[in-house]
Prior knowledge:
The structure is a homodimer.
Chain A: E1 4-13, E2 33-41, E3 48-55, H1 60-70, H2 79-84, H3 86-94, H4 97-100, H5 107-128, H6 132-137, H7 141-145, H8 159-169, H9 173-183, E4 185-193, H10 199-211, E5 216-220, H11 225-239, E6 244-248, H12 255-265, E7 270-274, H13 282-292, E8 297-299, H14 306-314, E9 320-321, H15 330-344, E10 347-348, H16 357-372, E11 381-383, E12 396-398, E13 401-403, H17 418-422, H18 428-431, H19 436-439
Parallel strand pairs in A: 4-5, 4-11, 5-6, 6-7, 7-8, 8-9, 9-10
Antiparallel strand pairs in A: 1-2, 2-3, 4-13, 12-13
Helix pairs in contact in A: 1-5, 3-5, 8-15, 9-16, 10-11, 12-13, 14-15
Amino acid sequence: MSTVIAVETSDVRFPTSRQLDGSDAMNPDPDYSAAYLRVVTDSGDGLEGHGFVFTIGRGNDVATAAITALTPYLLGRNAEGLLADMGATYRELINDSQLRWLGPEKGIMHMAIGAVINALWDLKAKRAGQPLWQLLAQMTPEELVDLVDFRYISDALSPDEALRILRDAVPGRAERTSTLLAEGYPAYTTTPGWLGYSDKKLTRLAREAVADGFKQIKLKVGGNLENDVRRLRAARTAVGPNIGIAVDANQRWGVAEAIEWMAHLAPFNIAWIEEPTSPDDILGHAAIARGVAPIPVATGEHVQNRVMFKQMLQADALQVLQIDAARVAGVNENVAILLLAAKFGVRVCPHAGGVGLCEAVQHLSMFDFVAVSGQKDDRMIEFVDHLHEHFVTPIHVHDGCYWPPLAPGGGSEMLPGVIETFGFPHGPVWSGHVAAEAVCA
Amino acid sequence: MSTVIAVETSDVRFPTSRQLDGSDAMNPDPDYSAAYLRVVTDSGDGLEGHGFVFTIGRGNDVATAAITALTPYLLGRNAEGLLADMGATYRELINDSQLRWLGPEKGIMHMAIGAVINALWDLKAKRAGQPLWQLLAQMTPEELVDLVDFRYISDALSPDEALRILRDAVPGRAERTSTLLAEGYPAYTTTPGWLGYSDKKLTRLAREAVADGFKQIKLKVGGNLENDVRRLRAARTAVGPNIGIAVDANQRWGVAEAIEWMAHLAPFNIAWIEEPTSPDDILGHAAIARGVAPIPVATGEHVQNRVMFKQMLQADALQVLQIDAARVAGVNENVAILLLAAKFGVRVCPHAGGVGLCEAVQHLSMFDFVAVSGQKDDRMIEFVDHLHEHFVTPIHVHDGCYWPPLAPGGGSEMLPGVIETFGFPHGPVWSGHVAAEAVCA
Lengths: 441, 441
């Protein structure tokens, strides 16, 4: 038996804005950041749980404060008790009646709960000696259903329906695990498409993406229509007719504007339009989906919880569902969202990039393939080649695929020294003692 | 010309849980709290802007940190510049690209923006020597429309439609101002209905409410059906057949459960069912509204922004729209929501209670009556008789009405000494040096 003896929170920021990595129509100068959490026990095995909220700079201190506000739920608690019933642990956190007022189940406090839950899953997987995707994929359908809070989604997905989906997938688990290990999981890349890049850089990176085996790239749009058309033409010329090109407006438009703008981009054979408008606008997304058909609408990186995803599915507001490892309340809520997507037969193509999002979300897609939807060939995980060097178990992406992580844990642990170097505002990168270029390859 | 020279933030908490004031099915033991903000300039006139985020205890420190994260938008800025174009000031805050990631436009960071915006409106009204409702009601339709961000609502309300609504109301402004000053604005009371109160206390308070001139009371429900039926019977017996009784489930139910539960309460002639389920569930509210008709559905105190209200109206998900002064991004976003409600012809009955919510929200309803909807006799503002004694300009509620505040400002300024006494965790109420009973009447 072991006790949680320390919960360390850190404000870690990478000065990505200095090179316009990650620039888009709504986020011109992000500094990719993590409100980071380390859970330490007295077990003596040296294993820790790590998790984070991903932000893009300012406000990362507030997210860190939100995680700190949750530490009474961890400190002094029996670790085995917390980890043995992750459904109960998750429900305890989302149902704190006072903290709930700050959402409920949305925004900073909800993301902080996600960081805590993910850190506990990381610890649980390390203790099991398994990568998180495999740990989840070996749980029984009953154990998986118990992870979910059905209160606000049972009108769309009952516990019995969830059980049926999971039980139907049990016989194929072993075979799909072998397939996953042999084939990898498809990826697409956003690396060429940031709005701050020149056409020349875009063209070069798009060609490299094809050479690297990616079947789809993504371009940021929504800043200026003329530029978008020119950039799309350059990208299509670079990749040829058989590579998918998705576009991402990062919430730039209203409903009518989205439909009109997309009419101008449609000739370039668009794989999907991502975040055309506010992530809160379910009915707006549904109207846009009707207006831009047959181009699929994709969203999710800012969709706050399972209740919103439920309605997006009920309203046929999205055709590509983009889970994010660090937006909702962690693994538990993402299991609910994967089950909803399976129920509605909608494909899941996770949002990633940022800091550690690729490392974390791959586990969810691989679990989904093995134990929920059973699908992967119509899906792909976003890949952006930034900041992986800071993680203990960085992703392996090659030949256009994510290759299944085999190391124990959930993937979110940063290397020793990263927190010190990039800690805000006193780490050397921010206090001016080390040039960012020296540490950001 | 003056400059913002100080922005003071405070974590203020009232130990209301010790008496079960404010208890309901989801919030058994709230400590009503304010993440409080004071904006000080060097104008020499002694006028300050005050605003707050209302919370119910834990996490108030995180809300305070969120306000603190916004102080760079105020400190050192020209005050006249900030106040002269409140539309631009509001848009500057909600469009900070890095902070926006933390919502967008929801949760703690959004509420913190609301506190800042409301503090600036408080200062602007004090400088004008007018109560906020009057300041707003004397602005031109063009000035009012410029306060609104239409990006995500223009599919339901265009700037031209908003202008038309406001222009139609101009001719009647003077007459309605006189009517308001002569008649007051209708109130209803939740004081009898907290879940933690005994039937005896409920009956006594319900009778007192009627004697005090209220035409409607509200009871918390959703904890236990048998208890709800018994308490409703007691309340109906106490108030007689001609007083409205609304019920409030505080998000306790799923869709099917809400409809079923309400079938048992319907015989008591229910004025509205409030917050039957998650405030995020637009389609769920619409289904419940169809299922419990003709009982109206009310919601809003947790509805995060204008985009969600827009859809609630588009989907006919609510028949009573409950704005809250401190949930959305302040006066500006509430002007947008009032215009949406007017466009859809839905009545607005604000949420209040808590700490300072009554003091703040009355200005919005009175402005709405004078300059937007022109209606008040089908509407009422919630009244709870808690904690008003801590404010410089407490509400005047008697004869079942709110009486228009005449003092300059927006109502949210606390009395000197309150922050010190109730400051968390070092104020004497929390550090144990003063018994709460000695300071909470």
